Amino acid sequence: MSWIKEGELSLWERFCANIIKAGPMPKHIAFIMDGNRRYAKKCQVERQEGHSQGFNKLAETLRWCLNLGILEVTVYAFSIENFKRSKSEVDGLMDLARQKFSRLMEEQCFLNVCFAYTSRHEISNAVREMAWGVEQGLLDPSDISESLLDKCLYTNRSPHPDILIRTSGEVRLSDFLLWQTSHSCLVFQPVLWPEYTFWNLFEAILQFQMNHSVLQKARDMYAEERKRQQLERDQATVTEQLLREGLQASGDAQLRRTRLHKLSARREERVQGFLQALELKRADWLARLGTASA
Ligand code: FPP
Ligand code: MG
Description:
It is a peripheral membrane protein. This is ditrans,polycis-polyprenyl diphosphate synthase [(2E,6E)-farnesyldiphosphate specific]. It catalyses: n isopentenyl diphosphate + (2E,6E)-farnesyl diphosphate = a di-trans,poly-cis-polyprenyl diphosphate + n diphosphate. Its EC number is 2.5.1.87. This protein is of the alpha/beta class. It is built from 8 helices and 5 strands. The chain has helices at 11-20, 36-42, 47-67, 87-106, 119-135, 146-152, 198-244, 253-293; strands at residues 28-32, 72-79, 111-117, 163-166, 185-188. Strands 3-2-1-4-5 form a 5-stranded parallel beta sheet, with helices on both faces. Strand 2 (72-79), helix 4 and strand 3 (111-117) form a beta-alpha-beta unit. Helix 2 (36-42) crosses helix 3, helix 3 runs parallel beside helix 4 and helix 7 packs across helix 8 (253-293). The model has no long low-confidence stretch (mean pLDDT 92). Farnesyl diphosphate binds at residues 33-38, 51, 54-55, 58, 77-78, 82, 93, 96-97, 100, 168, 193.
């Protein structure tokens, strides 16, 4: 029996889903699924049972997302910090992950799972990758930019989340997607993760819709600003080149335009070459990891 696809929304849920779908809908939602142990304590069951119910809730939530047309979900399944928990709890979570994620994969669901992850680690790794690119002669130091860093993150294939939801009443990000959520709608909900309902998700989407125009404006302004800054840097570089060649920096507008165009075309070529090399390097690392753990 399919886990995600089984069960449809109730008539009332479907009706409300259709109403909410008339507004701007998120394409990507990230979850910090918090509160499994408090739930276990509240229901007087074993911790592992709390985590297991938490996982079942994830499958249910994915189904709601699919029904709502939200095709991308990212979850914080296990942070690097979580390794500090007792050995039995960590082992239990690992067992759960092994059993349950392989089953989820069979359902071909589009789910990003952040496992042994922290955002600061991801960002510093991206910085190291760019430094490696410069060292290898693939990149010029002037190629380093926010947009290149963005492409070096593990999430480079996904749009940034529109909504980040944390359950259990905790109001912090705990080192999760810090870079990617700068213009996301942050929703903190008191419900414990295993008790999450369709209506909690519905409320989070309503909050997103109420803030949509402000968020969109902030995103657009930020993108514009990034473009403007890059253009300013390029113009300064061209001015420097022309002066070095003994030409008048502000003289020939056509020459300046040609130089600017060449500059950005060459940068794009270097960046693409670097990103391809990075992908190969990562694939090689994963292959070696696979061989070592086999
Ligand atoms: C937070 O609750 C939850 C986790 C640390 C694990 C999240 C995992 C799942 C929901 C199951 C799916 C993932 C795996 C690894 C199979 P908590 O343990 O922090 O509970 P508390 O906040 O009440 O202490
Ligand atoms: Mg917790």
